[in-house]
Amino acid sequence: MSKGVLNIRGGLMKTDISSVQLPADRADTVGEVRICNQISGAYGLRLSEGQMQILAENRIHSLKDAGRVEFGPGVLKDIVAAFCDSPYIYQENYEETLAGLQDIFYYFKSESMEGISDSDLIDSMARIFNGEAGGSLGYLADTGLPELCGGIRSGACR
After folding, report:
1. Neighbouring C-alpha atoms within 13 Å toward the C-beta of 72
2. In terms of residue numbers, what domain contains 47?
3. Which one, of 146, 158, 51, 48, lies nearest residue 104 by Cα?
4. What three-state secondary structure class fits 135?
5. How many domains does the chain have?
6. Residue 113: left (phi > 0), alpha (psi -120 to 50), or beta?
7. Is 88 helix (H, G, I), strand (E, B) or coil?
8. Cβ–Cβ contacts within 10 Å for residue 76, how many?
């Protein structure tokens, strides 16, 4: 189920506004990211406080760039859970990869016209990233997901 999002380019989508979290609420976002360390620590991946702040700020920019406002918790915790066991993510590229995955998620969530749930999109991203993309964010964004979203928009994947 989608967390509930307002697409400011295309109008109101289905939303649950019972717990609104605006992207400007960095403290809550950092708290969510802090939980990620508990998930990813088992795989040798940890974020510093500074990196958590950067990812919280990146979320705001990702949403803005995708023309979106997110209600409820962000998806970074779900992204971490799906990607922390990837053979292509190391401590040295962890923050940068999470930022890229977050950007890609919000962009393709809009491109799919809400035709795919958050969890299905994240699962598809992880499958492509760990498979045919070989850990390449560029391939994920430029090849794998455009095909998926094109199928959703045309109704072929419903």
Report:
1. 14
2. 5-154
3. 146
4. coil
5. 1
6. left
7. coil
8. 24
Q: CA 103, CA 66: separation in Å to the nearest integer?
A: 8
Q: Give the pairing type, strands 11-12 and 5-7.
A: antiparallel
Matching residue, tokens 């095909």: 147
Answer for the pair 108, 68: CB distance below 8 angstroms, yes or no.
no
Q: Of 111, 126, 91, 107, give the one whose Cα is nearest residue 157.
A: 111
How far apart CA 32 and CA 67 sit, in angstroms, is 22
First to last CA, the chain: 15
* Single-letter amino acid code for the residue at 20: V
Listed residue (34, 51, 78, 148) closest to 70, CA to CA: 78
Neighbour-count burial of 94, counting CB atoms closer than 10 A to its CB (0-12 exposed, 13-18 middle, 19+ buried): buried
pLDDT, tens only, 89-146: 999 999 999 999 999 998 888 887 777 899 999 999 999 999 999 999 999 998 877 7
Distance CA 98, CA 108 (A): 15
